[in-house]
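All the exercises in this workshop are built on plain-text protein records. Instead of coordinates, the fold is spelled out as a row of discrete tokens. Once this layout is familiar, the rest of the handout is easier to follow. The record below serves as our worked example for the rest of this section.
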Amino acid sequence: MSRTADILLTALAPAVWGSTYLVTTEALPAGYPVTMAALRALPAGLLLLALTRRPPPIAWLGRIFVLGGLNFALFWALLFVAAYRLPGGVAATLGALQAMMVIVMARGWLGAPIRARAVAAAAAGVSGVALLLIGPEAALDPVGVAAGLGGAASMAAGTVLSRKWQPPVSALGFTAWQLTAGGMILLPLALIVEPPLPPLTGTNVAGLLWLGLIGAAASYALWFRGVARIEPGAVSMLGMMSPVTAVLLGWAALGQSLTLLQGVGALIVLGSVWAGQRANRPAPPAPAKPAARPVLRMEGS
């Protein structure tokens, strides 16, 4: 499959993640963020394990729990803290810093080069997200800012390490391992820090099914497939599709306003994503040097 097709498939994952805010606010009970995260991760992971029938080998358990903690447990927990303590635009802008963090981490852990054009594209994307989401009422809460930065760093580290640690298993199996590990970390935490859930309605169940089956199992399988095939810097830029989708869904489904400035911000984000794919394109291999032609020596010369 071509690199362009891989990019388009991977971009579907953050586009789907953009629906998380709409589903969470409109379909899930409020006040149970860790419980909702556990119910999103663990059933989806167990379902994928049943489908793939490939449990992780014992030698991989340590790495899988590190990845499940970074990509799901820690990331989702910090994401909810940031969402509760900051305006959504500020939280999303802090999350967009993940692209720059990936560039630095990929240099340290994978030896990937730091390209000036890739850094510029990431910076432009952050500014576009800010224009798209931050309003004049935005306020900074220190705990919320720390959670937002920590969540971005957690996802960035999980993305780079998922590229570094590639097990001999399909992307679906790799997703099953990580979702299950993340859910196993989140479940006892939810039982400790949150009260029992009230009886779930049909709408609650539908929301959890969407977030678990589509927003976790299917989308993260596409994401980890892309992580294995595309450069880390290019993959991280695709994550900026999420706030664009969230704003468009809010406008289409909830009747939220969409200003000219937000439109400009969306165009900047899309342009930066395109530029980031070009800037992170691997350099073509150097042409092979022609073999030296042997020198024929005549007898007696």
Remarks:
- The chain has a mean pLDDT of 88.
- The chain has 13 helices and no strands.
- Residues 204 and 256 are 23 Å apart (CA to CA).
- The chain has one domain: 3-279.
